[in-house]
């Protein structure tokens, strides 16, 4: 059974703090690693899709890195804002033949003004 | 452009009944995937369909079935409903049937409650 683990489970930070979360995934049969942001009462929104070891992606104040050899990805948020409050999900793709993704349980971020 | 649309938004059923959930992908997207999300867990993969063919199936019993129509919309059917089927059912579409660099675009989900 393939396992994708995210830590921490939840995080409370003050506005302006920088923060990071971890996603651990199987290091074998890697094809893609996705990050999604899921705000309350909305649908999950794609942040990044990464496929190459050493990949680094950036979108505004949010960035992500990927290490496929050791099976982890970090998501960084610089200068957190209240609108960053959401659940951040990572998802592992282990095959090029399907779109099947295995999701972690998510990290819920609460940013206090 | 319209995003992924799912219907209904909420549904209440009793044990033993069956249910059909519907999904319309983003225009031009040929792949539809279904996920079940239980509170406190990440979405769990149920099915993927691409060009009307099943491309992947998750670890769900045969009570769960799906199909994709020529217009790429999709239905998820669940028979003999159990209390444990209560969950948010998410549909996601993407351009291709493989992961490549294609993100999944999610709908708002159908909240299914079993009494």
Please give the radius of gyration of chain A in angstroms: 14 Å
Rounded mean pLDDT of chain A is 94
- Arithmetic mean of pLDDT of chain B: 94
Helix share of residues of chain A? under 10%
| Residues in β-strands, percent of chain B | over 45%
Helix and strand element order of chain A? EEEEEEEEEEE
Number of helical stretches of at least 4 residues of chain B: 0
Task: Characterise this structure.
- The N and C termini of chain A lie far apart (41 Å).
- Chain A is mainly beta and 113 residues long.
- In chain A, strands 2, 4, 5, 9, 10 and 11 form a six-stranded mixed sheet that branches. Chain A has a five-stranded antiparallel sheet with strand order 1-3-8-7-6, with no helix packed on it.
- Chain A is 0% helix and 52% strand.
- Chain A has strands spanning 5-7, 10-14, 19-24, 32-38, 45-50, 56-59, 62-67, 72-77, 86-93, 102-103, 107-112.
- Chain B has 115 residues and is an all-beta fold.
- Chain B contains no helices and eleven strands.
- Chain B has strands at residues 5-7, 10-13, 19-24, 31-37, 44-50, 53-57, 64-68, 74-78, 87-94, 105-106, 110-114.
- In chain B, the strands form two sheets. In chain B, strands 2, 4, 5, 6, 9, 10 and 11 form a seven-stranded mixed sheet that branches.
- In chain B, a hairpin with a 2-residue loop joins strand 5 (44-50) and strand 6.
- Chain B is globular and about 40 Å long.
- Chain B starts with a strand and ends with a strand.
- The mean pLDDT of chain B is 94.
- The A-B interface holds A 4, 6, 31-32, 34, 36, 42-46, 49, 51, 89, 91, 93, 95-106 and B 3-4, 31, 33, 35, 40-45, 48, 50, 55-56, 58, 90, 94, 96-109.
Secondary-structure map with pairings?
The complex is a heterodimer of chains A (about 110) and B (about 120).
Chain A: E1 5-7, E2 10-14, E3 19-24, E4 32-38, E5 45-50, E6 56-59, E7 62-67, E8 72-77, E9 86-93, E10 102-103, E11 107-112
Parallel strand pairs in A: 2-11
Antiparallel strand pairs in A: 1-3, 3-8, 4-5, 4-9, 6-7, 7-8, 9-10, 9-11
Chain B: E1 5-7, E2 10-13, E3 19-24, E4 31-37, E5 44-50, E6 53-57, E7 64-68, E8 74-78, E9 87-94, E10 105-106, E11 110-114
Parallel strand pairs in B: 2-11
Antiparallel strand pairs in B: 1-3, 3-8, 4-5, 4-9, 5-6, 7-8, 9-10, 9-11
């Amino acid at each position: 059974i393939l396992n994708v683990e995210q830590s921490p489970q939840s995080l409370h930070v003050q506005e302006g703090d920088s923060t990071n979360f971890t996603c651990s995934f199987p290091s074998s049969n890697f094809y893609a690693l996705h990050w999604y942001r899921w705000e309350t009462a909305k649908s999950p929104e794609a942040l990044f899709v990464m496929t190459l070891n050493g990949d680094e992606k950036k979108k505004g104040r949010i960035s992500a890195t990927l290490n496929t050899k050791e099976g982890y990805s970090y998501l960084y948020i610089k200068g957190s804002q209240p609108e960053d409050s959401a659940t951040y999900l990572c998802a592992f793709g282990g095959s090029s033949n399907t779109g099947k993704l295995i999701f972690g349980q998510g990290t819920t971020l609460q940013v206090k003004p | 452009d319209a995003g992924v649309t799912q219907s209904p938004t909420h549904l209440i059923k009793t044990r033993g009944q069956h249910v059909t959930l519907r999904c319309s992908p983003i225009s031009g997207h040929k792949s539809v995937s279904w996920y079940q999300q239980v509170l406190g867990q990440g979405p769990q993969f149920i099915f993927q369909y691409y060009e009307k063919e099943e491309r992947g199936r998750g670890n769900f019993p045969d009570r769960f079935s799906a199909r994709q129509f020529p217009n790429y919309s999709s239905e998820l059917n669940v028979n003999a409903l159990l209390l444990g089927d209560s969950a948010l059912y998410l549909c996601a579409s993407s351009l291709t049937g493989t992961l490549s660099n294609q993100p999944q675009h999610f709908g708002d989900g159908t909240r299914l409650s079993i009494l």
